Amino acid sequence: MVETKPIVIVGAGIGGLSAACLLAARGENVVVFERQPTPGGKMRHIPIAGGLIDGGPTVFTMRYIFDALFADSGTSLEAELKLEPLNILARHSWGNGAELDLFADLDQSADAIARFSSPDEARRFRAFQAESRRVFKALQKPFIESQRPSPFGLATSSGLSGFFDLLRINPFENLWSAVSRHFTDPRLKQLFGRYATYCGSSPFEAVATLMLIAHVEQEGVWSVEGGMHAVARAFERVFLRLGGQIRYGVGVTEIQSEQGKVDAVITSTGERIECSDVIVNADANAVASGLFGAAVAKAVGAVPVKARSLSAITWAANVTTSGFPLERHNVFFSGDYKKEFDELRLGFPTAPTVYICAQDRAGHQGGPERLLILVNSPANGDDAPQNHQAVEAAMLKKLAQCGLTLDWDETRVVTTPPSGFSGLFPATGGALYGRASHGWMASFRRAAATTVLPGLYLAGGSVHPGPGVPMAAMSGRLAAESLMAKRASTRRFHPGATVGGISTR
Predict the structure, then answer these.
(1) Structure confidence at residue 380 (pLDDT)
(2) Can you identify the CATH homologous superfamily of domain 7-44+55-83+226-304+434-503?
């Protein structure tokens, strides 16, 4: 028997949408409230110069997660999205003609590194990739795809062999130390240490296990027709087809409880809607800080300001470029990585590393093109406009040093500083990735899908298993599975049964 009161999902980010699809496919009555006019959360579109630019995540990886989500929602990824695999994963530049491409083909990448640096570094690259693969395989089932375990639970989840596998991945090492074990060329240390920023962290403090990102990207990076926002639209389309309801422009201002369980939500329009369960797809700190009311604030631990991940300043631009041959994904490295991250502790970097996603590169024929330009920033730095201008000047200077000239026109640029992200995602201070992955315990301190308040669940990049589009999508699955498992236990379902593609174990 399906519960008559709806399951309410707060937020139509990828975590909320993936949970919504899985629950709707099970036949549940699901209502999503989204205060913005469109879905996607951080996977937003920014209108500029008559077009739309992806203003958030730009990299599509871990396709198998989305294959499974769409399959369990009664469709397929191929039916909902058009993907194009990238041959060049990213182009990297240090200036003065020092450029290196990484390829989808491991041998091509090794050959490129041999030419760029040395044959010895190419061999070290292969060893690094092998270790990255071991780390991913060791963590995939017991951590990434499982409800958040404790350190002891993770160590014992796969028996004695799994315990020794975990010891082999150097869980107490930081990422910079790990890349320094493999590479002697400081430029390659920068390149592979940069994976820490995928989680808004410093490579000098982040856990070495983040090297698994190297394996993830080697397994495939895709571009999405219509941009990353199209991924959110695809989940929206599937959810609505399954009979779900999304109310755009309507936020949830309070989550109420009765007799120790979630009971209702109050919307920004003043409605009180009784519900059976609530999944909050917002930053977990928004719950902990009381933005959804006192009844649920104590159900989630707050993230201290000093533990927040990095923010960013981004420029969505539709401009003409010349000089440097852009690929879809491009990184222009600073000359002193340690100094850059030391400066990020307190404010904006004076000589930043710059990332550019050139969203039209596949078929670019000249003229203006859509770029998303990003520089890492502190979540609580000095956010004055004059500082934005200084960072913009430093960004343009770095690009010029690498041979890239932009026909910069402020009327064709939309800037989003940390304060802008703080407004979009309340209670974050602009932090884009929840808690920073600093120290071996950081991952275990992330909020889990379940909370101490029955009926309250969490999803999104600030909760386990972590930030990034595939991880946020996985968090939605974990929230849906937790909810259905609880419901199954109260209905005396047989443990381990599978209903609508969602395990009740």
Answers:
(1) 76
(2) FAD/NAD(P)-binding domain (3.50.50.60)
